[in-house]
UniProtKB/TrEMBL annotation:
UniProt cross-references to InterPro entries, sorted A to Z: 6-PGluconate_DH-like_C_sf, 6PGD_dom2, 6PGDH_C, 6PGDH_Gnd/GntZ, 6PGDH_NADP-bd, 6PGdom_BS, NAD(P)-bd_dom_sf, Pgluconate_DH
NCBIfam families: gnd, PRK09287.1
Pfam family, one: NAD_binding_2
Organism: Terrabacter ginsenosidimutans
Record bears the keyword Cytoplasm: no
Official protein name in the record: 6-phosphogluconate dehydrogenase, decarboxylating
Name of the top EC class for this enzyme: oxidoreductase
Keywords per UniProt: Gluconate utilization, NADP, Oxidoreductase, Pentose shunt
EC numbers, comma separated: 1.1.1.44
Subunit structure: Homodimer.
Recorded catalytic activity of this chain's protein: 6-phospho-D-gluconate + NADP(+) = D-ribulose 5-phosphate + CO2 + NADPH
Family of the protein in this entry: Belongs to the 6-phosphogluconate dehydrogenase family.
Physiological role: Catalyzes the oxidative decarboxylation of 6-phosphogluconate to ribulose 5-phosphate and CO(2), with concomitant reduction of NADP to NADPH.
Length: 477
């Protein structure tokens, strides 16, 4: 072997091979390996000229081709395949070596693996990588966790291949053990919410009579302003696409059942455990599940009556502007909820994740990259926010748009166009700004049927009313 590689990638499907090429294009000598050797050979045959690759056909050969401390990126299917690869690697590694899991792993698995590798004197770096196939090749957003020490050896390499915004790499150390994968999971949860809002916006425009091509023009226009983002950009692309077989817009031919691989569901499950209301993300996950529930949809279609989905387009530009404002406002709520979930998890697990940094590394490379993220990052950097919604520029933005937001939700309700994302975002906004919530009645009911006690507004302690007795109140604390 002529030279040792300074980094290795095992798992050369779409993400792994593109990451390996990105590394090679940035001057790194990249050891490459895949369970089935055909992928390794194909990578070197097709892209060997892009840099220096050191191919291996066995795991032992792959490990031996790396300089120490070894840095190995595992890019295989999440779950059991990741464990299988780690089990094979560990006996071949030496103290101080670094194993990076770049797949979409559950953060609890990452915590387990990190702890196990630490016992062997190895570093395990659970790393969120977002940007899909193109991002992996041209510059993804990278969210590594693991030990601070491992980041010193690995960070410069990852930063060299990450997306750059204003000269800054969209890669930063997120915190110990599972922090990186947690941040990536929530990134995906926000991705779900963002896509649900976009779908609702399109649905309303469509119900107002806009063709797919006209809606594409609207999204293209929105992408020149405050909604500027990757997902808005590709929405215009998808809406513009015409199906060659039928000459109809492709969007009208695609089956209306949204699938999911699980990271959105994990976000919601984890939020339930942490007690963080990520209602917009939950509605987005449920909207996907509901869209695929054909038994229920088939049974209800034509049986359940309601308005016929006609949105008045009398003032078409007014409607378009209102929907744009509802989209911006709802998007802000999804970010507020997701970032709050990261903050809570960071407290729970002692990660000390810096929220401004999270928003900063999401500005480029990842699926949710958006102009708004620079503003969010600046607001979190300026002060410790209880919620993004109270950041001065955000609160002002919401104040100016809430009239439009309410009109859009009302329009959806009265015309029978489902808007679970927009309406749950607005309900959250109204909940957090409320002077008083009907939660007081919930507490009264809980005390009535289960003696669960309640607090009082005028004095400290826990109290119970003797509902089955003389209805006097007793202090229970
Ligand atoms: N696709 C995307 O846009 C994104 C994917 N990710 C994550 O990145 C990771 C890789 O994704 P992707 O490139 O799409 O590939 P896949 O998730 O389709 O995984 C395929 C790769 O996993 C390997 N593999 C599967 N089972 C095993 C096993 N038991 N032992 C060893 N290797 C195994 C395959 O090897 P073989 O060729 O031998 O079958 C192949 O290299 C996943 O965790 C995914 O969640 C993250 C961000 C975006
Ligand atoms: O990780 C990603 C981007 O960052 C993937 O795009 C994401 O896994 C897609 O998820 P789903 O299939 O559930 O929509």
């Amino acid at each position: 072997m002529s030279s040792l590689a300074n980094i290795g990638v095992t798992g050369l499907a779409v993400m792994g091979s593109n990451l390996a090429r990105n590394l090679a294009r940035h001057g790194h000598t990249v050891a490459v390996h895949n369970r089935s050797v055909a992928r390794t050979r194909a990578l070197v045959e097709q892209h060997g000229s892009e840099g220096v690759f050191v191919p291996s056909e066995s795991t032992a050969e792959f490990v031996a081709s790396l300089e120490r401390p070894r840095r190995i990126i595992v890019m295989v299917k999440a779950g059991d395949p990741t464990d299988a690869v780690i089990d094979e690697l560990v006996p071949l590694l030496e103290e101080g070596d670094i194993v990076v899991d770049g797949g979409n792993a559950h953060f609890a698995d990452t915590r387990r693996r990190e702890s196990w590798l630490r016992e062997h004197g190895l570093h395990f770096v659970g790393t969120g990588i977002s940007g899909g196939e193109v991002g992996a090749l041209e510059g993804p957003s990278i969210m590594p966790g693991g030990s601070r020490e491992s980041y010193a050896a690995l960070g410069p390499i990852l930063e060299s291949i990450a997306a750059k915004v204003d000269g800054e790499a969209c890669c930063a150390w997120m915190g110990p053990d599972g922090a990186g994968h947690f941040v990536k999971m929530v990134h995906n949860g926000i991705e779900y919410a963002d896509m649900q809002f976009i779908a609702e916006a399109y649905d309303l425009l469509s119900a107002a009579g806009l063709s797919a091509a006209e809606a594409a023009d609207v999204f293209r226009e929105w992408n020149t302003g405050e909604l500027d983002s990757f997902l808005i950009e590709i929405t215009a692309e998808v809406l513009d696409q015409v199906d060659t077989a039928t000459a109809r817009p492709l969007v009208d031919v695609i089956v209306d059942a949204a699938e999911q691989k699980g990271t959105g569901r994990w976000t919601v499950q984890t939020a339930l455990e942490l007690g963080v209301p990520v209602s917009t993300i939950a509605e987005s996950v449920f909207a996907r599940s509901g869209s695929g529930d054909t038994a229920v949809r088939d049974a209800a279609r034509g049986v359940l009556v309601g308005p016929n989905r006609t949105v008045s387009a009398g003032d078409r530009q007014g409607l378009v502007d209102d929907v744009r404002d509802a989209l911006w406002s709802s998007k802000v709520v999804a970010y507020a909820q997701g970032l709050e979930q990261i903050r809570k998890a960071s407290e729970e697990y002692g990660w000390d994740v810096d929220i401004a940094t999270v928003a900063r590394i999401w500005r480029g490379g990842c699926i949710i990259r958006a102009r708004l993220l620079a503003q969010i990052s600046d607001e979190y950097a300026a002060e410790r926010l209880a919620t993004l919604l109270v950041a001065p520029s955000i609160a002002e933005g919401l104040a100016g748009r809430q009239g439009a937001w309410r009109r859009v939700v009302a329009q959806g309700v009265t015309s029978g166009v489902p808007v679970p994302g927009f309406s749950s975002a607005l309900a959250y906004y109204d909940t957090v700004r409320a002077e008083r919530l009907p939660a007081a009645l919930v507490q009264g009911l809980r005390d009535n049927f289960g003696a669960h006690t309640y607090g009082r507004t005028d004095r400290a302690g826990a109290f119970h009313t003797l509902w089955s007795g003389d209805r006097t109140e007793v202090s229970t604390s």
